[in-house]
Every structure is written in structure tokens, then in C-alpha cells.
Amino acid sequence: MAARTNPTRILSGIQPSGPLHLGNYFGVIRPAVALQTEGEAFYFVADLHALTTVRSPLDVRRWSQGVALDLLAAGLEPAHAVLFRQSDVPEVTELAWILSTVTPLGLLERAHAYKDKVARGLSASHGLFAYPVLMAADILLYDADLVPVGRDQTQHVEITRDIAAKLNEAYGSVFKLPKTSVLDDVAVVPGTDGQKMSKSYGNTIELGLAGGALRKRVMEIVTDSASVADPKNPSGSAIVALYRLVASGGEVRQMEEEFRAGGVGYSEFKRRLFEALEAYFVPFHSRREALAREPAAINRLLKAGAERARAVAIRTMARVRQAVGID
Ligand code: TRP
Predict the structure, then answer these.
(1) Cα 15 to averaged position of ligand 1 atoms, centre (Å)
(2) Are 156 and 135 in contact (CB under 8 A)?
(3) pTM of whole model > 0.90?
(4) Between 288 and which of 59, 73, 97, 315 could a Cys-Cys bridge form, CB atoms 3.0 to 4.6 Å apart?
């Protein structure tokens, strides 16, 4: 096979703003891990972004380590993908500053994520407002071609393209524009209330749950008032949507048929979902537990990843510094 001179660079970040949940797993982690062999993958723990919402240093440390463990337990291979902590590459904040000097305020004022967070009562800090600029720096620092993100982050990648274009307009072509690789084929994962699973809706099923705690959470999934005997609609059901992520095609078809036929109650369907979830995550949990026993090894791995990432970052910054006149 001919050597490819320019492998596609794939980049994504995951914010350690809490323990991850099934929505993060099926929406971003699993597809990102699947992409790791498609090019040169850079995946990082976006701890600087988490600082916009997490105020406890203990939580920042704990959840950052947690995201690294989740990625590794999900099958990220450090031989294929560079795994690092965002804050271990300080060039990113320097680039964010330079980008901020060409970023129109209006662009940031239109960001849905910012507006949503402020509407939910988060105080409108400069960091929260400038969040997309730091994200643009993440993406442009590594000359990423492809940025796999969930639907809620696509606007941020669009903003990155706009900022890159602004900088190119001012200084000549410094950056190539990244492709918004939306993980379109990824189903929206419903939470226990049927809305999209999201930490801010309080409807998550955390990745770490197992046994009784997982069963309890699954039993809390909201259903309509259909009785055991009643026929039920599988297409709007969060139970079926979640089951689809972890059960075989045959099992899903059987559940759908039994929904339509009636005669089986929601609690039985939830029991089946619980068992399928638990079985699906057995290998993940055992890998994660083994990794968690080696925190020093995980730290070494993150530092080694940061070194590889930093080598790229330093080259990009030399180019940028020269372009703007601070070389
Ligand atoms: N904002 C992303 C999220 O919350 C995380 C993130 C930070 C990111 N920097 C990134 C994703 C760069 C992709 C590329 O999910």
C-alpha cells in the first residue's frame, strides 16, 4: 500500500464537566474511538473549557481523570490516537488570544450554547462567552481536518471556520478550514424523561452505574399511562431507543413487536433494557476498573500524549506568530 503523505487529522475534545453518561458515550466517545484508525487522531480532555462551569478543583481533577479513563476503557488505543489534557499544551491559550483579536462579538453573541447557559442561570463570564474562541484554538492549533462532534457542538465548529476565515482575511492563508464532521449517523440518545440526554436536564444515566443503581435509574424512565394489556408505541419510546443502542437487531424487533401487541408492561421492558445495558458495559467496566488502579500510568500516558500534541502546536504557533508579527 502506498504511504499517504497527508493523513487526515481527526480531533475532538471532551469536557470533564461531570461524570460522563450514555449520551456522551454513544454520541461522541464510541464514534470517536471508531474513527481513530481512519487518520491521525488527537483526542483531549478539555479541562480549560470545564473551568467555565466547574468551580471545585477537586472535581476538575477527578472528572478529568475520569474522562481519560472512559476514553481508554472505550477502546482508545494510545498507539493510534494521541490522548492528552488540553491544559498541558499552553500554546492553546496563546492562540485563543490571537484569534480573539479577529473574532467579531456578534459571532459569539449568536452562539446557542452560550445563550442556553446564561438562560439557565450561569453567570455570563468572559470565559463562557469566549468558549468558542478557545475551541477554535483547539481545532486550528492542530490543523484538524475533521472534527467529530455531537449535534450540539456543530455551531461551535462553524464558528471556528468563521474565525479561521477572519484570520486568513487579515493575514493571508494561515489556516485551512476544518470540516464539520457531524456525527450524523449517531442517534440522539434520549434521557430518562424522553428529552435528549444531557447533564443540564438532569435526565442522564451515568456511564459508571451498574447493578442496583443502574436498575433504579432505568426504572425511573418516564412512560405513558398504558396498562400491561394495552398496545404501546415503540417509536417514541426512550426504552426502545436506548435498547437499540445495546441489544441485537433480533432483540430490538422482538421488543418492538411486543410493544405493539400489548400484554407486556413497561416494567418488564425496563428490566430487559437494564439487563442489556449491564451486559453491554461489562467489558467497559472491567477495563475501566483495571485502568483506575494505575493512576500513575495514566498520567504518564497523558504526558506522553501532550508531548506529541505540543510538537504540532509549537510548529503552528511559529507560523501564526510570524503571520501576525510577534515572531
Ligand atoms: N465543547 C466541546 C463539548 O462540550 C468540547 C470541546 C472543546 C471540543 N474543544 C473542542 C470538541 C474541540 C471538539 C473540538 O463537548
Answers:
(1) 6
(2) yes
(3) yes
(4) 73
Using 50, 70 and 90 to split pLDDT, how confident is the model at 5? Answer: low
CA dihedral 49, 206, 245, 156 (to 10 degrees): -10
Residue to probe by mutation, ligand 1, list 10, 15, 95, most atoms within 8 Å of CB: 15
Q: What is the DSSP string of 52-70?
A: TT---HHHHHHHHHHHHHH
- Please determine, for residue 274, whether its predicted confidence score (pLDDT) is greater than 90: yes
Give the closest residue (by CA) to ligand 1 atom 11. Answer: 13
Q: How many residues are present in the chain?
A: 327
At 2 the pLDDT is: 45
Q: Is 81 strand, coil or helix? A: strand
Burial of 21 (0-12, 13-18, 19+ CB in 10 A): buried
Q: Can you read off the three cell numbers belonging to residue 28?
A: 461522541
Nearest-10 Cα torsion for 124, 127, 131, 135: 180
